[in-house]
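User: quick one, fold this
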Amino acid sequence: MEWRDEGVIIGVRKHGESSAIVEVMTRDHGRHLGMARGARSRAMAPTLQPGNSVAVMWRARLDEHMGAWTLEATRLRSSVIMESALALHGVNYLGALVRLLPERDPHAALHETIELVADRLHEPDMAPALMVRLELALLAELGFGLDVTECAASGAREDLIYVSPKSGRAVSRLAGEPWKDRLLPLPGFLAGRQDVADADAVAEGFRLTGYFLDRDIFGPRGAPMPDARRAFIAESLKPR
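Assistant:
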């Protein structure tokens, strides 16, 4: 068995004296693990860092085997990530999110989003809003997508400022007025009302996605929300 792909490294753990098990979110083969021999050499160490993009070749005798990687860096981000607390928390959280996906289950569109987020993790004006969008994309990939395109009650597409916590659908200002205390705020950058997300909008975005992540993903698994998420949000909301 052999295939080639591209992906983002999300995890590396030592194996033996010189090898490592490398976890990659690939475009066409999903979240995949493999052995990288010589991973602890000076030549390979800069490549095998979470957040880096790589071209990969995977080989195994049988498909169900772990297999072995040949990896070549295509975009090195680790030096920039190491210099930013926001990016460090962000790359850890990226890994936690990707591990919610079944191993070897392809999610090409989500891979593209992950690449985009990884490129911007060190940018405090961009990374938080992009992470909210990634959380929404992950919810959709796992079958719990939100619909923020039209009002669940009236079908209106304008002035959408709430989300129903029951259905995950948007609600307009007018339709939601009688129940506004029970509805979740829909920040403008997710509803197309604003291009740039300020700190308040980002906080609202994380409260929105956090509600559904906890209810539909982490809660049913009996797992807490990742510490990396809390750390990333706290760093995101610090005054700059």
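User: anything notable?
Assistant: The CA atoms of residues 23 and 33 lie 4 Å apart.
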